[in-house]
Amino acid sequence: MSISLMPLPYAADALAPAISADTIAVHHGKHHKAYVDKTNAAIDGGPQADAALEAIVASARTSDQALFNNAAQTWNHGFYWASLAPKPSAPAGELLAAIERAFGSTAELTEQLAARGAGHFASGWVWLAAKDGTLSIEETHDAETLVGTAANPLLVIDVWEHAYYLDRKNVRPDYLKAVLDNLINWQFAAENLARGTCWTYPG
Ligand code: MN
Fold first, then answer.
1. Domains along the chain?
2. SS3 breakdown of the chain: % helix, strand, coil, rounded to 5?
3. How far apart are the C-alpha atoms of 126 and 151, rounded to whole Å?
4. Distance between Cα 101 and ligand 1 center (Å)
5. Cα 161 to averaged position of ligand 1 atoms, centre (Å)
6. How far is the centre of ligand 1, averaged over its atoms, from the C-alpha of 80 (Å)?
7. Do 80 and 158 touch, CB atoms closer than 8 A?
């Protein structure tokens, strides 16, 4: 058994024009796949060869930086694909109530996500997370991840340049606006909030 490349939950061209099929093809088929392949190469034949990805991330966090980077990036990308959806939706129910408690409104939350994403220096991830019942925006650098931390991730946006450079060149705010206006899978965020425990990478 090895870690698999999580299939996209939609067609590669389903997120266009916010994110082009070319970007998805490279991001999923090259970048994400490379993280999966490097993770598998590192665990092959070792004690973690059959371990779940979350266990590999937790173990490598304090013992093997290279494996941590590849395993965490494998997880982060699966969570990112699931955080996006071709059809716009809106937060409702418990998620909407939690957003209104923490941010006042969904519009204010998305404005803050856009600002944090635009302001994040260099590569990383911008997350909506829940901790002790309260929502917050979190940023992690490079491969750093919320899996295995006290914060339960609800959704994430990839702000590495490879997520937008083919479509937007260096203009990260345009990518963030397109994603936040059109592609956020609020249903996925609601499911993560309701479950109360961290999403698990499928395989
Ligand atoms: Mn990426």
1. 19-203 (3.55.40.20)
2. 50, 10, 35
3. 13
4. 31
5. 8
6. 8
7. yes
Q: What is the pLDDT of residues 138-168, one digit of tens each?
A: 999 999 999 999 999 999 999 999 999 999 9
162 Cα: distance to centroid of ligand 1 (angstroms): 6
Q: Look at residue 152 in the predicted model and tell me its pLDDT.
A: 98
* 60-64 contact pairs (CB < 8 A, 24+): 61/148
- Whether pLDDT at 117 is above 80: yes
Residue 55 region by backbone torsions, left for phi larger than 0, else alpha for psi between -120 and 50, else beta = alpha
Q: Who surrounds ion ligand 1 at CB < 5 A?
A: 158, 160
**DSSP single-letter state for residue 185:** -
How far apart CA 48 and CA 59 sit, in angstroms, is 9
Which residues lie closer than 8 Å to 109 by C-beta, 6 or more apart?
99, 102, 103, 128, 135, 137
Task: Check if the beta carbon of residue 95 is closer than 8 Å to that of residue 190.
Answer: yes
User: SS3 of 155, please?
Assistant: strand
What is the model's pTM? 0.97
Radius of gyration of the chain (CA): 16
> What are the tens digits of pLDDT across the range 8-63?
999 999 999 999 999 999 999 999 999 999 999 999 999 999 999 999 999 999 99
Q: In which band, very low, low, confident or very high, does the pLDDT at 88 lie, cut at 50, 70 and 90?
A: confident
Cα 97 to averaged position of ligand 1 atoms, centre (Å)? 30
